[in-house]
């Protein structure tokens, strides 16, 4: 496919994106940047969050993963829905009641300064690495399709990609994100539906034939109850889905600051439930697309790529279909990738400004200057991390994203769980030690689980183990309650 056509398509897309961002971000202030002045309409937020949940990694990895995993990923998505309900009815009312800007302020109120800093830094590392990995995959695709044909270096690719993300989030923060993400979600959903349509038409399948082909495919097996040692075992995926979405949505500043931008917690609850259910059907579309892609390669005698991530890009842009399919692939890819990256950059700016620098307590003018500098700094760091990924030639798949999240979000999940479900106080200064030891124990356990537990393979339930280790560590740090002196009850009785 011509790189000129792809370039023109991308430029036109970004002109529309920046226009929407500019309109949405007018009259933005600091509060608007962080929480959108709590005036966002819930159904707009719900629609926008679909694009935020589905990154560029999802866009290229999920269709390719059906060969090895079938539809097993939907087991995890079912867990996502349950997790969204827990967030909506447990965490959202709590955060609204406390009027939080950053959700990690809860840890300071509950435990103390060290737990607050620990949560903020674990989020910072988690989100920076996760966002960089996602953007890295998109940069690789753009390098192959556009930059290499024009003999442009990867460094320029990264610089332009990160600059674009920074530019459309600079003015309006969360408010701009919600509206631009709505646009990107629309482009994402339309592109995958039209790709399914064109590929099904090439295979001469009508709607009934499409459903039959997918349902009768060996790749469409959904539930796995047979072997507990199988990584695809239902309860591994389902429970991991529940706790993953609680950690990556409910305890993640990136996703929660959108929910906190709604008018009240009731609207935020509607948003959470609606977006969770809609995400199930969008993921189902990606898996159906994967079945069609493998059906097409088998029918045409095309050799599948060594890496499943490369299947969709190879077929979409390889000249097997009309040029519109390649254009739709690029639009869908950049829509999903830039949606996730933009929200990550805004959340990193919020968390670093509020949690680490404590700048939200300063005057408006000073806060605005600090926030803008932090925003630039986060963009530069993100670009450097992407460039390092390229130097070590580290390719990413969806499994890598969730494994990474299991290590970094586990301590955050454990901290919040202990804080919400117990009333005990702990020795705050030792919390960073527990938060570091828990992932290290998980790493040792995951490396040796097959040898130690008769072939059992730890999958996404690693997040639950990590949070459990953190919870147990906090139990060890419980402070003994001081005995009330004789004078105290007398004082109370006098009152």
Automatic annotation (TrEMBL):
The membrane spanning regions, by residue number, are: 6-24, 44-66, 72-96, 116-146, 152-170, 182-200, 233-251, 272-296, 320-353, 374-392, 404-422, 429-446, 458-478
Question: Which GO terms of type biological process are on file?
Answer: sodium ion transport
Topology of this chain in the membrane? Multi-pass membrane protein
Q: Which domain of life is it from?
A: Bacteria
Q: Which residues form a coiled coil?
A: none
Give GO cellular component annotations, separated by semicolons.
plasma membrane
Q: Which InterPro entries match?
A: Na/Glc_symporter_sf, Na/solute_symporter, Sodium:Solute_Symporter_SSF
- Intracellular or extracellular location(s): Cell membrane
Q: One GO molecular-function annotation for this sequence?
A: symporter activity
Sorted alphabetically, the keyword list is: Cell membrane, Ion transport, Membrane, Sodium, Sodium transport, Transmembrane, Transmembrane helix, Transport
Q: Which family does it belong to?
A: Belongs to the sodium:solute symporter (SSF) (TC 2.A.21) family.
Q: What is this protein called?
A: SSS family transporter
- Species source reads Bacteroides reticulotermitis
Give the organism's phylogenetic lineage: Bacteria, Pseudomonadati, Bacteroidota, Bacteroidia, Bacteroidales
């Amino acid at each position: 496919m011509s790189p000129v056509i792809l370039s023109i398509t991308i430029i036109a897309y970004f002109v529309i994106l920046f226009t929407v961002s500019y309109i949405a971000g007018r009259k933005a202030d600091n509060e608007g940047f962080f929480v959108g002045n709590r005036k966002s309409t819930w159904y707009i937020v719900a629609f926008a969050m679909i694009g935020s949940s589905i990154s560029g990694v999802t866009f290229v990895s999920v269709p390719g993963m059906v060969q090895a995993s079938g539809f097993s990923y939907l087991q995890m998505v079912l867990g996502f829905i349950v997790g969204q309900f827990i967030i909506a009815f447990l965490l959202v009312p709590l955060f609204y009641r406390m009027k939080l800007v950053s959700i990690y302020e809860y840890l300071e109120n509950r435990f103390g300064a060290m737990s607050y800093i620990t949560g903020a830094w674990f989020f910072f590392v988690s989100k920076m690495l996760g966002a960089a990995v996602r953007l890295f995959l998109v940069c690789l695709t753009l390098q192959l399709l556009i930059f290499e044909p024009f003999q442009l270096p990867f460094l320029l690719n990264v610089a332009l990609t990160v600059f674009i993300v920074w530019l459309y989030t600079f003015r309006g923060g969360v408010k701009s994100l919600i509206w631009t993400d709505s646009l990107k979600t629309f482009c994402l959903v339309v592109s995958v539906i039209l790709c399914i349509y064109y590929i099904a038409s090439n295979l001469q399948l009508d709607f009934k034939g499409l459903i039959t082909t997918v349902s009768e495919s060996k790749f469409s097996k959904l539930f796995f109850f047979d072997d507990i040692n199988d990584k695809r075992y239902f309860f591994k995926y389902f429970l991991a889905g529940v706790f993953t979405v609680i950690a990556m949505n409910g305890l993640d500043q990136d996703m929660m600051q959108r929910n906190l931008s709604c008018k009240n917690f009731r609207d935020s609850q509607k948003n959470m439930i609606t977006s969770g259910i809609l995400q199930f059907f969008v993921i189902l579309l990606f898996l159906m697309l994967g079945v069609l892609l493998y059906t097409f390669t088998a029918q045409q005698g095309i050799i599948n790529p060594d890496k499943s991530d490369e299947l969709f890009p190879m077929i979409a842009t390889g000249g097997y279909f009309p040029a519109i399919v390649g254009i739709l692939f690029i639009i869908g890819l950049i829509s999903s990738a830039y949606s996730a990256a933009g929200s990550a950059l805004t959340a990193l700016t919020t968390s670093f400004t509020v949690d680490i620098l404590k700048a939200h307590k300063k005057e408006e003018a000073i806060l605005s200057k600090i926030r803008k500098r932090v925003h630039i700094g986060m963009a530069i760091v993100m670009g450097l991390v992407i460039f390092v990924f390229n130097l070590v030639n580290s390719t990413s798949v969806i499994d890598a994203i969730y494994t990474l999240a299991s290590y970094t979000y586990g301590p955050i999940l454990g901290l919040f769980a202990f804080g919400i479900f117990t009333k005990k106080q702990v020795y705050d200064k030792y919390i960073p030690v527990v938060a570091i030891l828990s992932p290290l124990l998980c790493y040792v356990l995951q490396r040796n689980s097959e040898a130690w537990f008769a072939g059992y393979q730890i999958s996404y339930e690693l997040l639950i183990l990590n949070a459990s280790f953190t919870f147990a560590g906090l139990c060890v740090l419980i402070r003994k309650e001081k005995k009330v002196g004789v004078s105290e009850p007398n004082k109370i009785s006098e009152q």
